[in-house]
Amino acid sequence: MTVTLHEINARQKHLRQEILERECLLATLEVLRKHVAAHGSSKTIDLSALFPAWCPTHETASPARQVTLLASAPAALPPPAPPEPYIHPDLQPFTNRHGGNTMVVQWAIERLTGDYTLQEIRALLTREGCIIESAEISVVLSRLKRRGKITAIEGGSGRRPSIFRNSPASSGESTLAGA
Questions:
Q1: Long-range contacts from 108-117, C-beta under 8 angstroms, 24+ separation
Q2: How far is CA 98 from the centre of its chain?
Q3: Which of the residue ranges 25-39, 128-142, 155-169 would you say has the lowest mean pLDDT?
Q4: What three-state secondary structure class fits 149?
Q5: Relative to the CA of 81, which of 32, 46, 52, 140 has its CA 20 to 30 Å away?
Q6: For the segment 140-176, what is each residue's pLDDT rounded down to a tens digit?
Q7: Residue 121: which residues within 8 A CB-CB, separation 6 or more?
Q8: Angle between helices 5-38 and 63-72 (to 10 degrees)
């Protein structure tokens, strides 16, 4: 049987929550016991309004039975953790690292066929789970253009985007190798 670190952490968190709930329940029962003991055995406390909140699955049981059920009832499981967002396996090493945006944009450029725009790069990266702002992509494209790795074949103006193409000198080599 294999267990991941994430599963161990989740189980520890669940057990800590269960222990906390049980300790709260134990403290509540101790307060009630002391209250009943201090006021004599002839006094009773109507707890019928509290038991549905403590033990909602056993609302119809008698108060004496409810105390037994409450003490033996398992703690509710916490809601499942939200799934980790999908990020393409090739992009995971580049996230959260110096120069990561450049490597991510170059990865996207290698996968685009023909000419491309900033919006096409952003759409591809978003689809693959790597969210990068357009301004950050623009900075990377400007840097790649200045280095001669890509060329702007048509400048953008207003709503019309700039269109880029890989430079002939860099088309035969991987742009990731030059990063």
A1: 109/144, 109/150, 109/164, 109/166, 109/175, 110/174, 110/175, 110/176, 114/165, 115/153, 115/163, 115/164, 115/165, 116/163, 116/164, 116/165, 117/156, 117/161, 117/162, 117/163, 117/164
A2: 22
A3: 25-39
A4: coil
A5: 52
A6: 999 999 999 998 998 888 888 899 998 776 555 554 4
A7: 105, 108, 109, 112, 137, 141
A8: 150
Q: Is 68 helix (H, G, I), strand (E, B) or coil?
A: helix
Return the biggest CA–CA distance within the chain: 96
Cβ proximity of 103 and 176 under 8 Å:
yes
CA distance 34 to 144: 75
Contact 58, 71 (CB under 8 A): no
Domain locations in the chain as residue ranges = 5-72, 92-166
What would the DSSP string read from start to end of 90-133?
TTGGGTTSTTHHHHHHHHHHHHS-SSB-HHHHHHHHHHTT----
For residue 30 the two structure tokens come to 């101790």
Cα 111 to its chain centre, rounded Å, is 27
If you search the block for the tokens 């991510």, which residue do you land on? Answer: 104
- CATH number listed for the domain at residues 92-166: 1.10.10.10
